[in-house]
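tool_call: predict_structure(chain=1)
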Amino acid sequence: MPVLTGIDVLGVQRFVFASNRLKDVVTGSFLVHWCTVPDGPLSCSGSTGSILFAGGGNAIVEFNTNEEAKVFAALYTRLLYDEVPGLEVVLVHEIFEHGNLAVALQNLQIKLARAKTQRFPSVPLSGLSVTATCMETGQPATRFDRDEKSVKISHNIVSRREKKGKAIEYWEKYLEDKTCYDFPLELDNLGRDKGDTSLIGVVHVDGNGVGKKITAWLSAQSDDETVRREYREWSQAIDRLGQEALFAVVDRIFQRVERSDDGNPPKVTGIPKGLCFDLKAETGSKWMLPIRPILLGGDDLTFVCDGRIALDLAETALSVFEHSNIPHLGNISASAGIAIVRVHAPFARAYELAEKLCRSAKDKLKKEDDQGCALDWHIGIARPGESVTTIRNKQYLANGYQLTCRPYLLGSEQDDNKVTWRWLSRTLLDGKVFGLRGESWSERRNKVKDFAELVREGPDVVLSALDAWRVVENKLQLPQPIGNSGFIATRTPLLDAAEIVDLHLVLEHIDHQQAKESEVKQ
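tool_result:
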């Protein structure tokens, strides 16, 4: 009888972020991708099975017999042990009768979930006689770094750095014809400046309710050939969706790069002008775009970028999901978590925070019974194990008022009467007249900053302060729907806006041909 073999990579976060160096993180994420793609170990192990799905740290392979599946499992796990030390996987088999493929796929997912909770974690003898430790992971060191001769590294890091070239090559397709540009391998080359803007953004985007859509689709299937065909169709479409989101993010940056002919570095432009910044050059050969993709698998996308453009790029990625249409599954929306932290903050903790913020955004959608997209962000690193709810209760709760509206629904571009992310960005921050960076407030930055303290006293205090300011300047107003009190019931978006008013760079389109013509006229 035929057999399904399911593979699920465990501890992806722990493996990828074992090192705090960006080049090791990038290679670690590539290895997770490599171990579950058709041209990786799934084929190198001499598999005779048919791959139904592969990617994002998961794979499903169909075999004709149980013996073939067991041989594959032995060869596959041995190859991972040799080539990707430190990475753990769960592998299970499901035997089924012809005509029951849809049921078998559902049972396989149950088996995988059970195996992950019931497995016995491995406890390897790291190195009883080894006294030197790896400079990156703290594990027993087995070798000196090839480039930095005095640096001791573990077998895990050795394996990563041997495959650095393949990892770099994997991401090059997202640069397309951008021949003078590259993704950086050092956090310092993401575009950072000295001072308050030396921040990076770890952005995690994940699809909403994909598992439920797949379960509903499987429940309606009865023919094996239909299941095989449609399974491949929608799984490949989801992979393309994630790739399209990353292409859109990279292209948004590239289209907002203002190039110079006078030898000065290219500049990322946007609104406000004071947040624009120059690109960095690595070894003087290529200009480094202020983004580095980390993880990409299906509807799951993670990248790190300059902190000033993190929110704008998160919105760009969500916009791609917002307009998606996956065969047999329909629209797949997504949520995003954005952790904006200092450049050399612990990478693993920043990613963990981004994941928690993404879950917070998903919870918002469930609470609102909304089928769209949502995002949540936090500036600063969280304590180990600290939840988003704990952070909000500590920092954004005063006198019975909630001083944040996070997480935000992405919102409609046409609807200006709801407190959504697009309303916050386009109206409260950058509304032409009453936006905090608009005509009325742009010369009164101190008053904008005062909102951060005034909201802690409640809407009456905000209204009184605004009335007093309007005696001198009657144009000062706050946009609807918050009105001049700054609150909706017991919540306010003013503190959210005040925190990002000097951080959030909205990328604007640059028509390079028009810019050149303008320069000629001048």
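agent: The chain has a mean pLDDT of 88. Proceeding to next step.
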